[in-house]
Amino acid sequence: MTNIQFYILASDNLEQRWSYARQLLVQTLLRGKSVHIHTSCAAHTRLLIDKLLHSLGDNDEKVSIDHKGEPDTSQQVLLNLSNDVPHFFSSFETTLEVIHDEASTRKMGRERYRYYQQRGYPLRHYEIQPELALG
Length: 135
What we know:
alpha/beta; globular; 6 strands
């Protein structure tokens, strides 16, 4: 069963959300895992490709970023940066959710948490202080 981990940032700064997502990505890659990053739209996909992939060096083949379609589920970790529960999340060992302290993002994050909880998925959440999300 997929493990779900929520990282709740004590900041409403979207840049800190991207920065912390990058930190999670790097930590996950260092543990030898491959990652699919699911975004909410084409603009976010392009932004993350620009912000992340150029800095990963040889690890870039272990990462995919997209906002549509079916990802390569041979990857082990899903980093969900969209506002919805991706229908394919249970194909991964772990799903990571990064939520920043902006009203609509928090609300949608709570809805996703309840969705996973009601279906019995193992959940953990971490409160992240802004200074840890600076990257």
